[in-house]
């Protein structure tokens, strides 16, 4: 993977928040390349800037400075260069959360099909592909269940199916295994690795879960907004 | 995929309960509008029932409804002889209370002359009063039945006919009787008082008075000209039918009408605030879902559509339930509640407009939700 062109390229990304007279530096010149098919972890104590970095890569939060490229397209260079960031997220980014964040009023199938529907896929095709994904993630038998009726593991797999629905190039996962036991956490990470390999997607995971460290290609440590250059390769 | 529909279907019970609450509130608004309309219509019922062109009353008064009026009974003959007058009739109006079947009946007694203007406009049951004395035609809301005997003053009357919706501006049901009976009831003193008046040398006066004389004109006869002729008699005043209606609606029931109008406006304002609050709360409850929708790339139009559609559905269902409720219970009100189609449609339009405006608060809140909220625990 080291030889392939990076899918995500961050150069000197900084983020500062102003609170009254105080300026808080959440990220300070983060430079990072992530290749297609790579699964990386972001570690760091609370307040170190992990979620801020994830939000910037997901185009939810605007950096203060730096340059960001996704899939060979420069998205940010001192300012957003794309106006339709929501469309960019829809097409290229999938999110997996600590708590699955499925829409409570849609059943498992519709939660997955919604993303396809938003992308303009015809309803019947969206439904078929959603079922396919649920089967792939071994929750097809729970297709009619609403989020409240799903177990933690089932909910997380449906959320992964939703994140994968548009075949995104990037999957951002914020503590995806925090609510799961170690066996299910391992299953979820193996699944993400498989997806990364199958779809040549980059997966960036914020985690504290030491049990799954062996599932990452690279592990980055964030401390006081700075990315530790000591990359750990398991 | 209609998110508004899916959300409502998922929380159907709660949504319907909210609709019922809103429906009851709108039902109260509609009831107030109905009471308002009923008050106006009731006020005009008695003045319209003779279907006449002119009211001749005591000079200097705006009687017989807004002020008291008493004119000689033979005024009718003088009016009837005037050029342009087709027919005329003398009328008395008085409110009496009678104990009947252990309840107190409050009645608005109208005395009229047989075969002359001013009698009951239509008979719903039984028959009209013939020339026989001591008969009455009563409104159904009195609770009196046909052939029932009721004692008014010192005389017993038999109910021979029933009318519908004949009430005065105070809501008291009308009872029609012949003028002679009404004059006896109104002007005849009880024996003790008569003896006292005799002792004072004041007895023996005529009781042939009426409160008003009503006149129908020939087609083509000028109402103003006839009224002007009558006004030349210094002891009489002439009021056209239009003026009489204005006196009733703008004077007699004006305060009650304005009171209800003010209360209805207040209720509508409260309803608007409540609708806005419900929609805002419904949106805030979906804060996380909206943040997730934004995060996964849903356009604002999808989110706005969900809020506006739910808001309009809430208004429509609530309004329909309100209409259904008030239509079913309106007859249980002691006074008339009149729901006119144009009033109901106008309220429906206002409710939809309020829902649309109120959804603006929800939309504004939704658009300000940060998609990063979805990432928070």
Compile the SSE list and pairings.
The complex is a heterodimer of chains A (234) and B (377).
Chain A (H helix, E strand, L loop, with lengths): L7 E12 L2 E13 L4 E5 L6 H8 L7 E6 L2 E5 L7 H8 E4 L11 H11 L4 H14 L15 H13 L5 E5 L7 H18 L2 E5 L11 E6 L2 E2 L7
Helix pairs in contact in A: 3-4, 3-5, 4-5, 5-6
Chain B lengths: L2 H8 L1 H37 L5 E5 L12 E2 L2 H6 L4 E16 L2 E10 L12 E2 L8 E5 L9 E4 L2 E9 L10 E5 H9 L3 H9 L9 E2 L1 E6 L5 H9 L4 E5 H12 L1 H32 L1 H9 L4 H30 L11 H27 L10
Parallel strand pairs in B: 4-9, 6-8
Antiparallel strand pairs in B: 1-11, 1-12, 2-10, 3-4, 3-11, 5-8, 6-9, 7-8
Helix pairs in contact in B: 1-10, 2-7, 2-8, 2-10, 8-10, 8-11, 10-11
Describe what you observe in this structure.
Chain A has about 230 residues and is an alpha/beta fold. Chain A has a single domain, classed as Rossmann fold (3-Layer(aba) Sandwich), CATH 3.40.50. Chain A contains 6 helices and 10 strands, in the order βββαββαβαααβαβββ. In chain A, α4 packs across α5. Chain A is globular, with a radius of gyration of 18 Å. The model of chain A has no long low-confidence stretch (mean pLDDT about 85). Chain B folds into 2 domains: about 160 residues, no CATH class; about 120 residues, no CATH class. In chain B, α1 crosses α10, α2 packs across α7 and α8 runs antiparallel to α10. The interface between A and B is medium-sized, with 32 and 24 residues.
What key phrases describe this protein's structure?
heterodimer; A: 234 residues; Rossmann fold; six-stranded mixed β-sheet; four-stranded antiparallel β-sheet; 27% strand; globular; B: 377 residues; alpha+beta; ten-stranded mixed β-sheet; 50% helix
- Name the assembly state: heterodimer
Low-confidence segments of chain B, ≥5 residues, pLDDT <50? none
What value does the average pLDDT of chain B take?
Answer: 87
Provide the CATH superfamily of chain A: P-loop containing nucleotide triphosphate hydrolases
Our measurement of the CA-to-CA distance between the termini of chain B, rounded to an integer number of angstroms, reads 27 Å
How would you describe the shape of chain B? Answer: elongated
Q: How does the helix and strand content of chain B classify structurally? A: alpha+beta
């Amino acid at each position: 993977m080291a030889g392939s062109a990076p899918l995500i390229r961050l150069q000197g990304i900084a983020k500062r928040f102003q609170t009254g007279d105080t300026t808080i530096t959440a990220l300070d010149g983060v430079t990072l390349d992530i290749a297609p098919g790579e699964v990386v972890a972001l570690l760091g104590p609370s307040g170190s800037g992990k979620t801020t970095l994830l939000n910037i890569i997901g185009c939810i939060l605007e950096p203060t400075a730096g340059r960001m490229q996704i899939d060979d397209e420069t998205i940010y260079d001192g300012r957003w260069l794309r106006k339709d960031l929501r469309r960019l997220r829809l097409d290229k980014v999938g999110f997996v959360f600590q708590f699955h964040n499925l829409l409570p009023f849609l059943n498992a199938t519709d939660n997955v099909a919604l993303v396809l529907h938003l992308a303009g896929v015809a309803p019947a095709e969206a439904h078929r592909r959603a079922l396919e994904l649920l089967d792939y993630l071994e929750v097809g038998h729970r297709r009619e269940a609403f989020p409240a009726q799903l177990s933690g593991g089932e909910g997380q797999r449906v959320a992964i199916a939703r994140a994968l629905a548009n075949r995104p190039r990037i999957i951002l996962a914020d503590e995806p295994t925090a609510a799961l036991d170690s066996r299910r956490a391992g299953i979820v990470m193996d699944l993400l690795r498989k997806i990364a390999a199958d779809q040549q997607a980059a997966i960036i995971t914020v985690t504290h879960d030491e049990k799954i460290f062996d599932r990452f290609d690279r592990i980055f440590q964030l401390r006081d907004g700075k990315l530790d250059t000591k990359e750990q390769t398991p | 995929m209609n998110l508004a529909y899916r959300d409502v279907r998922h929380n159907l019970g709660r949504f319907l309960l909210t609709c019922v609450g809103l429906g009851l509130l709108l039902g109260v608004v509609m009831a107030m509008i109905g009471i308002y309309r009923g008050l106006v219509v009731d006020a005009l019922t008695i003045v319209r029932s003779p279907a006449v062109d002119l009211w001749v009353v005591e000079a200097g008064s705006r009687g017989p409804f807004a002020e008291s009026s008493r004119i000689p009974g033979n005024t009718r003959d003088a009016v009837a002889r005037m050029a342009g007058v087709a027919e005329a009739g003398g009328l008395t109006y008085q409110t009496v209370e009678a104990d009947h079947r252990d309840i107190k009946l409050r009645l608005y007694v109208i005395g009229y002359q047989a075969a002359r203007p001013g009698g009951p406009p239509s008979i719903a049951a039984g028959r009209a009063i013939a020339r026989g004395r001591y008969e009455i035609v009563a409104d159904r809301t009195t609770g009196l039945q046909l052939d029932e005997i009721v004692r008014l003053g010192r005389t017993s009357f038999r109910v021979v006919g029933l009318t519908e919706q004949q009430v005065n501006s105070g809501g008291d049901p009308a009872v029609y009787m012949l003028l002679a009976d009404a004059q006896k009831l109104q002007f005849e003193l009880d024996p003790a008082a008569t003896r006292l008046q005799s002792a004072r040398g004041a007895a023996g006066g005529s009781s042939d008075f009426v409160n008003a004389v009503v006149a129908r004109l020939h087609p083509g006869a000028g109402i103003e000209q006839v009224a002007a002729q009558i006004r030349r008699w210094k002891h009489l005043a002439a009021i056209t039918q239009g003026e009489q209606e204005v006196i009733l609606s703008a004077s007699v029931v004006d305060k009650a009408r304005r009171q209800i109008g003010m209360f209805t406006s207040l209720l509508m304002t409260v309803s608007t605030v409540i609708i806005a609050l419900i929609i805002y709360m419904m949106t805030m409850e979906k804060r996380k879902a909206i943040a997730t929708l934004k995060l996964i790339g849903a356009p604002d139009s999808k989110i706005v559509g969900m809020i506006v559609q739910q808001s309009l559905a809430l208004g429509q269902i609530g309004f329909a339930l309100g209409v259904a409720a008030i239509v079913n219970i309106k007859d249980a009100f002691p006074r008339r509640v009149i729901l006119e189609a144009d009033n109901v449609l106008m309220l429906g339009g206002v409710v939809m407009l309020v829902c649309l405006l109120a959804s603006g608060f929800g939309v504004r809140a939704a658009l300000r939700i940060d998609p990063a909220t979805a990432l928070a625990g």
